[in-house]
Design brief:
mainly alpha, 9 helices, extended, two-stranded antiparallel ribbon
């Protein structure tokens, strides 16, 4: 018995020692990771109060429509949106007739027909928004070697999400003293490395909004970022509504279970069995 007590007394310092070492290593790793992230060669964007953030918040449909207009007139010249079909726009920011009209303006290769030949046809609601380039080589050739990314999931694919996209769009600056920029490149401190192939895409008055909103550069950046955030998660609003319904149903089930336990089982909890 005394030997067991002695072993237990010796084991406690060992356990605390292991915990202390683990905490030290974990803390050092966290500090190293954080310092490495913030010592990178790019400026980190601020955190903006997006209207669609939050458990009960929904996307701004008017902003999505304006953002799609910016995408159509500015971004679509270089970037595709291959995971969004025209039907996804119906009921969100366009009517069915408006979406059909937009789709019909595009030409899509279809076939083969009865003769085995492929043909061009107007787009329809089930078609996805295609890239302006036929392949990667054509895209690089047209953009001085740079490859414009598809924007379907861009807010999910970039650290910082919507905050990063917004900061990047309005973050073009003159290069600091001593920094050499190659021909065809531009300086943007929010882009990794600072040097970016894409020229400043937006400027004041770059588009004329259908609803009369003043098209400042920041307004255009905010709207197209909202549109791209929606494009990455077009089901987000429905998912939030389903979550509210689920939680409400779960609360009702919990109340019913509590009532059932409290009243219907009370006779068993208060029953006394006597053997005399």
């Amino acid at each position: 018995h005394e030997q067991r007590q002695l072993c237990d007394m010796l084991r406690v310092p060992r356990i605390f020692g292991k915990v202390a070492v683990g905490a030290t290593v974990g803390g050092a790793a966290y500090i190293f990771t954080s310092s490495t992230a913030y010592a990178s060669d790019q400026l980190h964007s601020a955190t903006y109060p997006w209207s669609h953030n939050g458990f009960m918040a929904a996307y701004d449909a008017a902003s999505i429509r304006r953002g799609h207009q910016v995408y159509q007139q500015v971004c679509a010249a270089c970037h595709g949106l291959k995971r969004i079909a025209f039907r996804n726009l119906v009921g969100v920011c366009y009517t069915e007739d408006e979406a059909k009209e937009m789709a019909a303006e595009k030409e899509y290769t279809d076939g083969p027909d009865d003769t085995g030949a492929y043909f061009e046809r107007p787009g329809k609601l089930s078609d996805y928004i295609q890239s302006p380039y036929k392949n990667e080589n054509e895209a690089r050739y047209a953009n001085n070697g740079g490859l414009p990314p598809d924007l379907s999931l861009i807010t999910k694919a970039r650290h910082g999400g919507a905050d990063y996209i917004f900061a990047l769009l309005i973050g073009y600056r003159a290069p600091p003293a001593g920094v050499v920029i190659a021909e065809g490149q531009h300086w943007n401190p929010y882009f990794p490395g600072g040097r970016i192939q894409m020229p400043p895409p937006i400027y004041d008055g770059g588009v004329e909004y259908e609803d009369g909103t003043e098209a400042t550069a920041s307004q255009m950046a905010k709207d197209v970022t909202t549109f791209l955030a929606w494009a990455a998660e077009p089901e987000a609003d429905e998912r939030k509504k389903m979550g509210v319904k689920f939680i409400a149903g779960l609360a009702l089930c919990g109340a019913a279970a509590g009532w059932y336990k409290r009243f219907l089982w009370s006779i068993y909890k208060t029953r006394r069995i006597s053997f005399h």
